[in-house]
Amino acid sequence: MAFDATFFALVGLVVFLALVIYLKVPGMVGKSLDARADQIRNELAEAKRLREEAQHLLAEYQRKRKEAEAEAANIVAAAEREAQMLTAEAKQKTEEFVARRNALSEQKIKQAEADAVNAVRSAAVDLVIAAAEAVIAKKSDAAVQSDLFNRSLNDVKTRLN
After folding, report:
1. Is residue 1 predicted with pLDDT exceeding 70?
2. Extents of the domains making up the chain
3. How far apart are CA 42 and CA 120, in angstroms?
4. What sections of the protein cross the membrane (predicted)?
5. What is the arithmetic mean of pLDDT over 117-146?
6. Pairing with 148, which of 88, 107, 111, 124 sits 20 to 30 Å away (CA)?
7. Model confidence pTM above 0.85
8. What is the 3-state secondary structure (H, E, C) of the chain?
9. How far, in Å, CA of 29 to CA of 38, rounded?
């Protein structure tokens, strides 16, 4: 019997398969594949858990963002209301200030008018007195002046005593 290369290849294959079965390589490969499948399954579960956690965090951050936007809108509205109140208050104070200044100006004008009237009256009285002196000086002679002087002197004496 002649053994050619095909026969030796067949014998080598049978020995190889026997060795693989004896060393329990299919079991090790199965265990390895099962371990890898378990590892992939665990990674998928972890990825799913992380995804759910990320979605939860996203929803929470979106809720917080909406709350922050609402709070910012409330702050802006409050600031606008306060600005309107301050504007109205400033307008009212300005109007009151203008009214007080007008009243004070009118009072000063009335006082100035009264002072001017009193000054005119005083000047008129001084003028009338000067005119009366001039008229009396022209119409009276020395005797009349002496008589007036004596009467005035007697009036003063009686009042002093």
Report:
1. no
2. 9-160
3. 114
4. 6-23
5. 82
6. 124
7. no
8. CCCCHHHHHHHHHHHHHHHHHHCCHHHHHHHHHHHHHHHHHHHHHHHHHHHHHHHHHHHHHHHHHHHHHHHHHHHHHHHHHHHHHHHHHHHHHHHHHHHHHHHHHHHHHHHHHHHHHHHHHHHHHHHHHHHHHHHHHHHCCHHHHHHHHHHHHHHHHHHHC
9. 14
